[in-house]
Hints:
- The chain is an all-alpha fold.
- The chain has helices spanning 11-28, 34-48, 51-63, 68-72, 85-98, 109-118, 121-144.
- It has a single domain (36-150), classed as AhpD-like, CATH 1.20.1290.
- This is AhpD family alkylhydroperoxidase.
- Residues 22-96 form the Carboxymuconolactone decarboxylase-like domain.
Amino acid sequence: MSxxxxxxxxxxxxxxxxxxxxxxxxxxxxxxxxxxxxxxxLRASQINGCGFxxxxxxxxxxxxxxxxxxxxMVAAWREATVFTDAERAALALAEExxxxxxxxxxxxxxTWAQVRKHYDDDQxxxxxxxxxxxxxxxxxxxxxxxxxxxxxxxMFAALTG
Length: 161
C-alpha cells in the first residue's frame, strides 16, 4: 500500500508540515504530562480511523515507557481501571472535541468541569491545541491514505526547529 500523495516530497506540503511540527512544540514543551499527550493523540486517531497516527502514537507511548495495558486500553478507557481521573477527563475531552458534529453543544459542561478540576489554564490550553492539531494531522493522513506500520519513534523530530 502506498500513499495517494507524498506530503514530504511536495515543497508546499513540506513547508506546512514543518510549521505544523513547530506548532506542536508548544504542546510538547508544556506541563501537560507526556503520557496524557500520547493517550489523547491515540484516542482521537482511533476515532478518526487514522492508521498512520495510531501507529505513531502507540509507538511513541511505548517508547516513553507507557505500559502495554494502558496503550491497549485507550479505545475502552471508560471501562478500564488503568487511567487516572485526570486522564479520563482528557480522554473525554478528546472524544467530544473530535466528534463535534455528534452533539449540538460540542464539549459538554460536565466534561469541561472535569477538565477544569484536573488541569491548570496552561495545561488546558495545551490540551485544546493538542486536540486541534491531532485532528488536523488525522485528516491530512486519511485524505492522502498514508499507510501505517513503518513509523519509528522520534522520526519526525528533525522537522522542528
